[in-house]
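User: Is it possible to get a 3D structure for a protein together with its bound compound? The compound here is thiamine diphosphate. I've pasted both below.
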Amino acid sequence: MRQILLPDGSLDGESPLPTDHVKRLFEAMVTARRYDHKSISLQRQGRLATYAPFEGQEAAQLASVAALAPDDWLVATYRDAAANWAHGYPMDLLFLGRVGDERGGAPPEDVHCLPPSITVGAHMLHAVGLAWAAMLKGENRVALTMFGDGATSEGDFHEAMNFAAVYDTPTVFLCQNNGYAISLPVARQTRSESIAAKASAYGMAGVRVDGNDPLAVYDVTREAVARARRGGGPTLIEAVTYRLGAHTTNDDPGRYRTSEEEEAARRRDPIVRTRSYLEGLGEWSRGWEDAIETEAERLVDEAIERAEAMQVPDVEHVFSAMFETPHAGLVAQAEEAGR
Ligand SMILES: Cc1ncc(C[n+]2csc(CCOP(=O)(O)OP(=O)(O)O)c2C)c(N)n1
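Assistant: Yes, that's possible. Here is the predicted structure of the complex:
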């Protein structure tokens, strides 16, 4: 497993990122965690629908996206709000999507993110299609798709991996192995030695990385993106991480894992580790982190305000957002709603 920044904050090897970039990643991780905690409390207040927390997975999401160019595609899941936000998906639309408003699934045209996929695994095929299209059109564009360990048991994973390898599409498959698919531990998900090992069966590069180490995640993603961009084909990255929170706000992890396991995972928290590293360099202070927290709170609160202001009582868009010509079932529903 590739590691650079060890859990105690020391380095094994050289940082692939200058200190300024690491500080920006730290800011992004702290901001994302604020978004995550806020989302949970909004759900508790009845202001968001079901929410899938990503606490603990910030490095896997943010350090990988840091290796993308703005024009590269990001095709991610319901748990990847941090990644989408970092790739330009407006935070207010991410909130809006979580109240079930389909306008939240339509990022602006110049943002190269697909709407978060709720269907486990399906979006990997979309990422391969986007990468293939970019290749055929001669665009120098890569598509990175994120998914969980559970998604690797879907047929879609096989189809996407096989097609990408056969056609050499510029796709980066990034599996966040967070230990569980709801309550199913990864040990029961696969008999393979690792998820990264599956790459060799498809004839593509596979790499296993400490997903809570932002420096190693950045490094392996940068390599995979560079390989894809120069026509060297796809890569499967397995980022080994841990979902510190519940599967969703409807889940109670206490029913399938112990508090000892959770405490041990907290000691590998990517934010704690990055803070220790920066502190060791003399680049961290409590005042600096407090200022990041204050700014994060402002950013998140303003995004919520904008999202809530968009929730007008007019439900017309429910019927018009998806189909240019509505099908009979939709017409009947619209009539029933008095439209
Ligand atoms: C095709 C499909 N099957 C089942 C579900 C229900 N479901 C939602 S999340 C989930 C577990 C996915 O686990 P994993 O891929 O490891 O991702 P994680 O939720 O841990 O990020 C399941 C089974 C779904 N959304 N889509």
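The pocket of thiamine diphosphate is lined by residues 79, 118-120, 147-151, 178, 180-182, 243, 247 (CB under 6 Å). The chain has one domain: 19-314.
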